[in-house]
Model the fold of this input.
Amino acid sequence: MRKIPSSEITPEHTYLSRRAFLGGAGALSAAALLAACGGGTPAPAVTPRPADGRTDDLGDPLNSLEQISNYNNYYEFTTDKEGVARLAQQFQTSPWEVQVGGMVGKPRTFGLEDLLALGQEERIYRLRCVEAWSMVIPWSGFPLGRLLAAVEPQAGAKYVRFETVYRPEEMPGQRDRFYPWPYVEGLRLDEAMHDLTLLATGLYGQGLAPQNGGPVRLVVPWKYGFKSIKAIAKIDLVAEAPTSLWMALAPNEYGFYANVNPEVDHPRWSQASERRIGELRRRPTLPFNGYADEVAALYAGMDLREHY
Ligand SMILES: Nc1nc2c(c(=O)[nH]1)N[C@H]1C(S)=C(S)[C@@H](COP(=O)(O)O)O[C@H]1N2
Ligand SMILES: [Mo]
Done:
């Protein structure tokens, strides 16, 4: 099996990263990080520490709003996780439209208000990045299946393709032509219709901040975090499996499925364990990120090593 000792720093982009490092994730002062909390988004309420006493379904505490909003992967802004919040402050999340089309009976453009009208429930999910760190996040949103049902998928539609907004003037990382922007992700239609699959419009009871993918992003809790595409501008029902940005960049490292699987290592590090942000000791990674009871049946009969 592809096995390489894991380390604390195992970024998704490392093998092609000379440019990322040249681009310079400069050292941000603590003051700058704190200052990043204001700006274009509603200021976070008092940050409870540790979190607010609530837990996920496995009894583990929520990560704090401060942790969730200051440690982000969002390559449209920067590859520096602690620098995203500041760079995303000016990002315009309003007005916002999501175009839903492709193989559907009723194509439609949804404004953010239309999305909010589809419901707002809270879902406490683990987010497990392919880099082997994780958090517990209280999202708000609604099952994606509700939106898909509203546009009436046609019989030939087998996959859903998602696209992030393309605004290089606001997203400095998108000016780096090395990446095949815009960010694209995809799900099989049955995965997209699964009740756990969320379109998130908030967290900790607030609107979704730009660094977390505001105003609307996908959350697929049993898959590695990169599937949970941020700042969605377009959703299409399609016949063939879409090629994601990560598949296009490194097909041997990032497959279409990307189900969390402790038994299938990344070519450059182990996936057997992970570091929960805020904890010192690593913890074992769970099959399907702990959601196997709910989702394993989606993959019955599939070789999950082949379909990574
Ligand atoms: N458009 C877009 N979506 C994205 C990413 C990105 O770089 N661009 N990063 C992904 C990765 S690798 C992870 S782990 C999660 C991180 O979400 P968070 O910053 O809200 O914790 O967002 C995912 N969605
Ligand atoms: Mo990630």
User: Anything to note?
Assistant: Residues 12, 73, 129-131, 225-226 surround molybdenum atom (ligand 2) (CB under 6 Å).
